[in-house]
Amino acid sequence: AIWNLGSINADMVYALPHLPAPGETLAATDLQQFLGGKGANMSVAAARAGSHVCHIGAVGADGVWAVDRLTEYGVDTRHIAETDTPTGHAIIAVDRQAENQIILFPGANREISTDQLGQALTQAESGDILIIQNETNMQAEAAKMGRDLGLRVCYAAAPFDATAVQSVLPFLDLLFLNEVEAQQLQQATGKTPMELGIADVIITLGAKGARHFCAETGEIQDFPAHRVTAVDTTGAGDTFTGYVLSGLDRSLPMPQAMALAARAAALMVTRPGTADVIPDLKEVQEASF
Ligand code: ADP
Hints:
Blueprint: E1 2-5, E2 9-15, E3 30-36, H1 38-48, E4 53-59, H2 64-72, E5 80-82, E6 88-94, E7 100-105, H3 114-121, E8 129-132, H4 139-148, E9 152-156, H5 162-168, E10 174-178, H6 179-189, E11 200-204, E12 210-214, E13 219-223, H7 236-249, H8 254-269, H9 281-286
Bound molecules: adenosine-5'-diphosphate (ADP).
Residues 178, 204-207, 209-210, 225-226, 228, 230, 233, 236-237, 240, 262, 265-266, 269 line the site of adenosine-5'-diphosphate (ADP).
Domain Carbohydrate kinase PfkB: 5-279
Family: Belongs to the carbohydrate kinase PfkB family. Ribokinase subfamily.
Protein name: Ribokinase
């Protein structure tokens, strides 16, 4: 199984004639609400890829719909707590040129308790996968607990936070970075991915594909991206991560898991939207590229 300590957000997308200037009051012409958050996206991707995914997270009283939707997409939601703090949300203003401005309210995502985390992870079995990102609290506690319990501890360093990354590094088996995060990490630590002491490091490079660094063999392997017409790249990285984890969860060797993830992410960028449109395994296998 896969255990995901992860964020759950409401993405509120407001269409505007232009982005608001300081002091300006502006009426939106449209509002759409989506399920979002890196954590939720990864849970949906791994569940759609066929894995049992237990999401560990928190919402407010206003987030019941988000938990229902995760359940609908096949995610095990029994370890999602309801807190007094409102559900995390992103207020996304988009103008006619598709330029955006985002206000992120972490809310309940940062209210996960040690007890809640402990209760969830003690039900994990040795060899299960734990995935962590930076949109919740409890990263270091979870990574340490995961290592002590014999879980395969995985971490996506997004959004990048040098302090959070350094606090989990000693416990990691697998690290996911995009190109920008890889540069930020190298600046923060002065080390290359090979020098971090982590068994596997994966760096995604957008339309240029992805790269796997294996510490044991010292090998670097490249996985080209599929050529598609991209219409919306949000959630590409989260889909890629969720599919890699699901592949590993189903005992695929890393190259096969990465190849599957590249197909899933390529299909994902051809679709507008995030969690709601992450493709399932059958769609990914049948995609014509
Ligand atoms: P993030 O969204 O975290 O910044 P990336 O942009 O690196 O992540 O994308 C993750 C993966 O999604 C890439 O490794 C690639 O496989 C796939 N991908 C991203 N953009 C494209 C694209 N334009 N065409 C095909 N595949 C893409």
